């Protein structure tokens, strides 16, 4: 969820998009927080809400409020944004339904320089009634005078320290540097929290707990921005988004030769996380976190940036590469320099350009003697290849005094490979790839310096100049082919018309109600699950002692509490009590007064195991141990055995297709409400198959299915992942509701959802295909092996679809095809969009293999 935070400042009040799930509420004191509900509603739409909805930018709608607020923040700061700014603003948002095209189309209408490609007539269809997907002329204009003002009650500057006392955590928010240093001395182990982008992830993902937290967000001394002739001093509390703006302004004002370090930092900031994270994360926090894959630290270190640290009674300057920060020290500001004869460059390689950690990155600097190409000083730093930023110090020293030429390049690459040792245990692995990138980055740096100094590049190297050019980020252009509406079609006939999504407006305004948006029910409790940590094991004991001591715990639900059948059809055992067959299998559930209490208690349950051999994980393991579900499926026609004898060529091969997570935006969510008589229950559940949940709950409770009323209003994404799996959680919650006689709310966290539910079936295909010299296929023998997991779920249906569609566009006159579901010790895989069709790519590999083999 994206919200917009506005902080009172003397000159203007910038608006920052933030990731709400990471932002502690204590850090928002005296700030204005705006969500999509605050800027408009279905009766009075804000222009952003209207344009995203009417441009068809909403499907499931779960991501739509975040899209609205990211665009809203951009428009508050830049009322007439460029298309590049729009793309940057939305780069931190995720949508699983639309493919982003209609969202961008709606947002681009705010850009004066943009062209809505979907509304441009095709040259071959110059008709007056050419259909438009939406009419921009009907949109409300953006009127800055109608925007929300900063609340007068928050226009105060408090000069005292604030303390927030929670159940387990004390939050200190000092207002002066003196108070901050005193707190740092008193609580040296307490983290300093600004944007919470690092500490928040540690807490949410790894359960790291800090009883005391210090937030210097109101300490004005940490927001210094002081440019001078030597460089620029930037306060440690300046956010990365602010840093990017500050550096960009300096680049426009100063001569190019004085801003090489700034340009290198901007290059890294452009792809570092998304706009929301950059608006929260601070420069000091980024440096102090000492991330091995930090994109800024190698550049800052190479450029000689100076950290100015302060502790109670002491002040010191140091370079990060010389010594670590002490616990009681505070990073006050960072100074960067600008020198004429220096060249600074930054490099990174990641799986994606944006929103992806760097696999390896680097910062490099070289300074030449005046008017020469002789190296006077050099620094090379790498990230992603060790536990922290590493310096190629020996390489840099050895190159001093050398001329900047190809002989130096060869020597530099040799020295760097010798000095930078990457162990197999290095973060992220990929040792050989990272070794290659270390010298590849230096090669790019070599070419960049030659070009920047207007030196001639030798002919052998000219062909590599393209490697130093950034990929152009083009404005997305789309082409859609659709049938025009017949002029004789009645106006009341909606078929083929670009009608706005029925819930599109509500989704854009935040009025659309998903399961977890439903108001709390009286006496409502929350449920969390204790799941197996072993793939195949016998349960020896379950100790609930510590879990029951957590505040707010009402009960712990186990197999003995199930009044009916302790199983869900196709999903296996509901609450395991003797053995577990996969990591993530539910063993018991904690019911508590809050979600936090329930999850905390679930982690306190101690379960002892005894491993059972073998643990079957892969398809290869299943084949080895003959672990299959029966009956086998198959198709046979013609006589493949005889046809192979007539074939001119017989080829054999294997194809392996990985699984995939549905990654729906709304995790599995439901509410079970006991009606108080005749064992009747109301279930509000996010599911694609409402009857499956109804029948499963009835069977588990041992009541007729007409006692269970299942309801679903809308689903925040599913893609097949919510066909059968919600029945597991609905059944567990129903048992808890029946035992406690109170409503139960179940909303899974992302990691928990992915652990329990699995996704698309991995498949291994083995084929034997016979063909003639002219390429005609005469016979094929194919075996599909799919990793079903620990229960059958939808595996047989997926295999049947794969079998029926395996011939694709080809004719197999003689075919013998088998499909086998492998039983493994993984969470059971389930339905996924495509449902058997993607697995038939095996068929497409056979003709390609034939072509390569026969050189045709």
From TrEMBL:
Family, as annotated: Belongs to the xanthine dehydrogenase family.
Record domain FAD-binding PCMH-type: where: 164-369
Cofactor(s) named in the record: [2Fe-2S] cluster; Mo-molybdopterin; FAD
Record carries keyword Iron: yes
Gene3D superfamilies: 3.10.20.30, 3.30.465.10, [2Fe-2S]-binding domain (1.10.150.120), Aldehyde oxidase/xanthine dehydrogenase, a/b hammerhead (3.90.1170.50), Aldehyde oxidase/xanthine dehydrogenase, molybdopterin binding domain (3.30.365.10), CO dehydrogenase flavoprotein, C-terminal domain (3.30.390.50), Uridine Diphospho-n-acetylenolpyruvylglucosamine Reductase, domain 2 (3.30.43.10)
InterPro entries per the UniProt record, alphabetical: 2Fe-2S-bd, 2Fe-2S-bd_dom_sf, Ald_Oxase/Xan_DH_a/b, Ald_Oxase/Xan_DH_a/b_sf, Ald_Oxase/xanthine_DH-like, AldOxase/xan_DH_MoCoBD1, AldOxase/xan_DH_Mopterin-bd_sf, Beta-grasp_dom_sf
Protein name (record): FAD-binding PCMH-type domain-containing protein
UniProt KW keywords: 2Fe-2S, FAD, Flavoprotein, Iron, Iron-sulfur, Metal-binding, Molybdenum, Oxidoreductase
One GO MF term attached to the UniProt entry: 2 iron, 2 sulfur cluster binding
Top-level taxon: Eukaryota
PROSITE patterns documented for this protein: FAD_PCMH, MOLYBDOPTERIN_EUK
């Amino acid at each position: 969820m994206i919200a917009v935070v506005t902080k009172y400042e003397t000159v203007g009040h910038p608006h920052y998009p933030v990731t709400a799930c990471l932002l502690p509420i204590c850090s928002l004191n005296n700030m204005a927080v705006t969500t999509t509900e605050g800027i408009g509603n279905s009766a009075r739409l804000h222009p952003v809400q209207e344009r995203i909805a009417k441009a068809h930018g909403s499907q499931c709608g779960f991501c739509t409020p975040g899209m609205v607020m990211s665009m809203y923040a951009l428009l508050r700061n830049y009322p007439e944004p460029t298309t590049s700014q729009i793309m940057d603003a939305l780069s931190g948002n995720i949508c699983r339904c639309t493919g982003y095209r209609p969202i961008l189309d709606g947002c681009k209408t705010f850009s004066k320089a943009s062209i809505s490609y979907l509304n441009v007539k095709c040259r071959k269809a110059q008709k007056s009634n050419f259909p438009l997907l939406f009419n921009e002329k009907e949109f409300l204009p953006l009127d800055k005078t109608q925007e929300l003002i900063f609340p007068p009650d928050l226009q105060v500057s408090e000069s005292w320290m604030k303390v927030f006392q929670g159940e387990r955590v004390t939050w200190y928010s000092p207002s002066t540097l003196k108070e901050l240093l005193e707190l740092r001395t008193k609580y040296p182990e307490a983290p300093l929290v600004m944007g919470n982008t690092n500490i928040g992830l540690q807490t949410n993902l790894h359960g790291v707990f800090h009883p005391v937290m210090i937030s210097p967000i109101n300490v004005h001394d940490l927001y210094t921005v002081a440019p001078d002739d030597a460089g620029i001093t930037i306060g440690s509390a300046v956010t990365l988004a602010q840093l990017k703006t500050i550096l960009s302004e300096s680049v426009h004002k100063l001569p190019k030769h004085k801003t090489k370090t700034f340009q290198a930092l901007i290059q890294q900031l452009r792809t570092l996380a998304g706009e929301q994270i950059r608006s929260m994360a601070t420069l000091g926090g980024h440096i102090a976190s000492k991330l091995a894959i930090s994109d800024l630290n190698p550049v800052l270190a190479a450029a000689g940036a100076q950290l100015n640290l302060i502790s109670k009674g002491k002040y010191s300057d140091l370079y990060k590469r010389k010594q670590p920060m002490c616990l009681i020290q505070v990073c006050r500001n960072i100074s960067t320099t600008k020198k004429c004869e220096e060249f600074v460059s930054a490099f990174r390689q990641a799986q994606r350009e944006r929103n992806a950690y760097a696999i390896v990155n680097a910062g490099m600097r070289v300074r030449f003697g005046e008017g020469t190409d002789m190296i006077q000083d050099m620094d090379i730093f790498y990230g992603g290849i060790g536990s922290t930023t590493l310096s190629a110090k020996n390489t840099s020293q050895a190159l001093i005094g050398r001329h900047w030429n190809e002989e130096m390049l060869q020597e530099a690459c040799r020295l760097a490979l010798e000095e930078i040792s990457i162990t197999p245990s290095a973060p992220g692995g990929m040792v050989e790839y990272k070794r290659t990138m270390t010298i590849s980055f230096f090669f790019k740096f070599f070419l960049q310096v030659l070009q920047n100094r207007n030196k001639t590049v030798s002919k052998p190297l000219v062909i590599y100049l393209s490697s130093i050019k950034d990929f152009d980020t083009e404005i997305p252009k789309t082409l859609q082919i659709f049938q025009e509406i017949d002029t004789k079609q009645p106006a009341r006939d909606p078929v083929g018309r670009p009608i706005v999504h029925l819930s599109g407006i509500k989704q854009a305004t935040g009025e659309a109600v998903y399961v977890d948006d439903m108001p709390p029910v009286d006496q409502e409790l929350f449920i969390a699950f204790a799941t197996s940590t072993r793939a195949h094991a016998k349960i020896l004991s379950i100790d609930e002692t510590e879990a029951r001591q957590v505040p707010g715990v009402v009960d712990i639900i186990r197999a003995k509490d199930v009044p009916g059948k302790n199983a869900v059809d196709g999903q296996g055992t509901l609450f395991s009590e003797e053995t577990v067959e996969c990591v993530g299998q539910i063993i018991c559930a904690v019911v508590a007064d809050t979600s936090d209490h329930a999850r905390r208690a679930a982690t306190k349950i101690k379960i002892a195991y005894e491993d059972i051999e073998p643990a079957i994980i892969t398809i290869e393991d299943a084949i080895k141990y003959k672990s299959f579900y029966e009956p086998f499926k198959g198709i046979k026609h013609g006589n493949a055995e005889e046809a192979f004898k007539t074939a001119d060529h017989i080829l054999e091969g294997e194809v392996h297709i990985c699984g995939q997570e549905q990654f729906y935006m709304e995790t599995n969510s439901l509410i079970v409400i006991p009606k108080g008589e005749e064992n009747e229950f109301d279930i509000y559940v996010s599911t694609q198959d409402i009857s499956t949940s109804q029948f499963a709950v009835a069977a588990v409770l041992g009541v007729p299915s007409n006692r269970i009323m299942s309801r679903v209003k809308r689903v925040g994404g599913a893609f097949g992942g919510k066909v059968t799996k919600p029945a597991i959680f609905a059944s567990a919650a129903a048992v808890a509701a029946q035992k406690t006689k109170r409503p139960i709310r179940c909303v899974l966290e992302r990691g928990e959802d992915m652990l329990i539910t699995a996704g698309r079936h991995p498949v291994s295909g083995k084929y034997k295909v016979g063909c003639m010299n002219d390429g005609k296929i005469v016979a094929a023998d194919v075996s599909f092996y799919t990793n079903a997991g620990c229960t059958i779920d939808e595996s047989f249906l997926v295999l049947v679809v794969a079998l029926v569609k395996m011939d694709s566009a080809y004719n197999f006159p003689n075919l013998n095809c088998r499909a086998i579901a492998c039983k493994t010790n993984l969470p059971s895989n389930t339905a996924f969009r495509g449902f058997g069709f993607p697995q038939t790519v095996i068929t497409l590999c056979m003709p390609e293999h034939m072509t390569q083999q026969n050189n045709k």
